[in-house]
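Today's session is about reading a structure prediction critically. Students often jump straight to the picture, but the first step is always the sequence itself: look for stretches that repeat, for charged clusters, for runs of hydrophobic residues. Only then move on to the predicted structure, which in these notes is written as discrete structure tokens rather than atom positions. Here is the chain we will use throughout the hour.
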Amino acid sequence: MANPDISQYRSFDQICDRLDGIIGSVRDKDTSLERSLDLFDEAIALGSAAVEMVDVTELSPTEEARLQEEAAQATEDSSSPVDPSVEQSSSLQD
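Below is the predicted structure for this chain, in token form.
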């Protein structure tokens, strides 16, 4: 099978839109197996291109700070002490 030409998809959003279109086509019962396999190859190529885009994307200082704040907040939420009343009520049910 020939490599699909995905050069027209230059942005992550364009790739996502095309992948959505591929999903719709593959789900269509009228799509032949051969066409589905061609679409699968195209989806693999698009997915690889999307991963490459994400890997080389550099965040702005504002975006990076926001992500660090969100990560810190998530860490705080997961390490916060448990409310003793919740523990007590669950032990009373046992």
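Discussion point for the tutorial: The chain is about 75% helix and 0% strand.
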